[in-house]
Amino acid sequence: MKNITDSFVSLGHWPSAGSLGFNTDILATNLINLSVVLGVLIYFGKGVLNDLLDNRKQRILSTILNSEELRRGAVEQLERARARLRKVEMEADEYRRNGYSEIEREKVNLINATSDSLERLENYKNETLHFEQQRTINQVRQRVFQQALQGALGTLNSCLNSELHFRTISANIGILRAMEEITY
Known about the structure:
Order of helices and strands: HHH
Helix content: over 70%
Radius of gyration: 36 Å
Structural class: mainly alpha
Largest sheet: none
Number of helices: 3
Strand content: under 5%
Distance between the termini: 31 Å
Shape: rod-shaped
């Protein structure tokens, strides 16, 4: 902390700086630059991130609604299968005399097929939700990173110009000359 304070206090000792000048202490200026860049990223990136998340939320909700429709369709299939099962059971009473074991096999096959269909639909729904969530997270990460990087580069490019470079180089040369005079 003392180095940072000393770097601000030492501004008045530069021969070319006068009352105003640039802080050439790399650690202190990097902290300031990083805090400014982070502040700008948070301020401007918050709205973009909210919009991206809202869009993804709507897509996920529509995917969930589609999955719910698929589930309703599966439930309807189940109800039809149950109605068919009831019909088969009534027919079983009639055919019991002719072949009880064949009817039982048909009943078991029907129940197994319906259960397998429901299980496949449920697995498909869960896989779809998981896939959409992962894809959404990856897209949001990529967009936030790209926008943050573009914003940071834009900020840096708009702040850095040839005059600033020339003044910084001149100040550093003055410091090196002063250090060279002190050592000789």
